[in-house]
């Protein structure tokens, strides 16, 4: 089957690219072996954590782009980054929205007992940025081992309580299991009564970020009604329920727009003719299926997503065999100590400003292929706290550039 655009990768960059093309009424196929890093790390939307305190995002990004023009933000430019973030936000109308406070980063409490800077925050977490010592009650659940209420309460200088759910649910529980339970009115009734018994002079309650996958604001509102005080979510270890909410919203909207999903598959081979990609193959033994398109976007991520692979000597890109910007030898991949800068984290595919892959001389390698997301070179999204921002901005910009072709 032939498409206007094939997107390889189902993380945030791929989803943004597919959505942007679908909004332009293009026939789109998106392929991915999983949900990217959305269900691992994406509780909030990091754009640039290195913005100085109280500096607005626009000013901070503008200066960053001037200082690092080869960074993915430099490829897209400030205006397109802002357009992309606005496009992302339009997918989340009230009541479940993503917000920033005063157009800059805010410090969000985490399940590790720290505060981390982030830009766009789900409405279920916004009240957490006003966490007050001795005025917050942290609630955990017996059997849920990824959230230790008493330990967090000590670090946040407040009080923590671990609740036991009804006997039916006394076994070990995962975040997804808890999220499903939270959507049951009988469970919320039980939790509301038990929490209300524990409240002293607290003004807010922090729950792990498992307040349902489908209607988290409805769950939060119901718990606030039953307890009588403010409720907010605290990001937890993977899997990320807020990340699942993002993926599910994208998937729902894309299917409505006629986008074809191939989830659980990965591209095994690209067929090239000169400087054009003629098609891709997906192997699902014993069947091999071919797909073709006028345009292709590579958004397969780095090592976790399989977009980049490494042997004992070299890092390589497995689908198009694109050259990878990387340290000259494996000995220089990592710094001398754990907390040093590790050059391997800045490796990736080099592109021109239109996000087409280029060679060492800066010449485009392929005419109808664009690259988006963390697979791009010249960034360290972990240290910068910029991963979701890079994925949103470059996924959007790659699709815009492809549609101009």
Can you give a write-up of this model?
With 405 residues, the protein is α/β, with parallel strands linked by helices. The chain folds into two domains: 2-96 and 244-404, FAD/NAD(P)-binding domain, CATH 3.50.50.60; 126-234, Rossmann fold. 31% of the residues lie in helices and 22% in strands. It has twelve helices and 19 strands. The protein has helices at 12-23, 38-41, 57-67, 72-76, 78-89, 149-156, 175-182, 185-198, 216-227, 241-256, 381-384, 387-404; strands at residues 2-8, 28-32, 98-99, 106-109, 115-118, 121-122, 136-141, 159-163, 204-208, 230-234, 260-263, 267-273, 276-284, 287-298, 309-310, 315-316, 324-325, 348-349, 369-371. The strands form six sheets. Strands 1, 2, 11, 12, 13, 14 and 19 form a seven-stranded mixed beta sheet that branches. Strand 15 and strand 16 form a beta hairpin. It starts with a strand and ends with a helix.
């Amino acid at each position: 089957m032939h498409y206007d655009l094939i997107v390889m990768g189902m993380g945030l960059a791929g989803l943004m690219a597919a959505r942007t093309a679908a909004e332009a009424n293009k026939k789109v196929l998106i392929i991915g072996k999983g949900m990217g890093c959305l269900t691992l790390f994406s509780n909030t939307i990091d754009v640039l954590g290195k913005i100085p305190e109280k500096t607005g995002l626009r000013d901070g990004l503008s200066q960053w782009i001037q200082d690092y023009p080869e960074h993915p933000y430099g490829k897209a430019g400030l205006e397109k980054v802002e357009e992309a973030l606005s496009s992302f936000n339009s997918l989340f109308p009230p009541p479940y929205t993503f917000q920033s406070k005063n157009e800059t980063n805010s410090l969000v409490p985490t399940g590790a007992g720290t505060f981390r800077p982030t830009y766009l925050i789900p409405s279920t977490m916004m009240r957490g940025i006003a966490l007050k010592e001795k005025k917050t009650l942290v609630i955990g659940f017996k059997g849920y081992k990824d959230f230790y209420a008493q330990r967090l309460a000590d670090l946040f200088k407040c009080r923590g309580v671990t609740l036991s759910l009804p006997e039916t649910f006394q076994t070990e529980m995962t975040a997804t299991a808890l999220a499903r339970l939270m959507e049951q009115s009988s469970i919320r009734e039980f939790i509301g009564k038990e929490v209300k018994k524990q409240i002293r002079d607290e003004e807010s309650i922090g729950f792990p970020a498992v307040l349902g996958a489908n209607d988290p604001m409805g769950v939060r509102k119901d718990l606030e009604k039953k307890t009588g005080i403010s409720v907010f979510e605290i990001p937890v270890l993977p899997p990320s329920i807020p990340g699942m909410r993002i993926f599910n919203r994208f998937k729902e909207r894309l299917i409505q727009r006629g986008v074809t999903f191939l989830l659980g598959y990965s591209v095994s081979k690209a067929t090239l003719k000169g400087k054009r990609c003629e098609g891709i193959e997906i192997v699902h033994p014993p069947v091999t299926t071919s797909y073709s398109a006028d345009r292709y976007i590579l958004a397969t991520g780095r090592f976790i997503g399989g977009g980049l692979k490494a042997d004992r000597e070299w890092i390589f890109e497995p689908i198009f065999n694109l050259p990878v910007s990387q340290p000259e030898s494996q000995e220089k991949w990592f710094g001398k100590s754990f907390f040093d800068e590790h050059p391997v984290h800045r490796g990736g595919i080099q592109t021109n400003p239109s996000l087409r892959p280029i060679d060492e001389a800066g010449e485009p390698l392929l005419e109808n292929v664009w690259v988006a997301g963390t697979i791009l070179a010249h960034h360290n999204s972990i240290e910068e706290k910029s991963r979701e921002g890079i994925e949103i901005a470059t996924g959007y910009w790659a699709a815009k550039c492809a549609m101009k072709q």
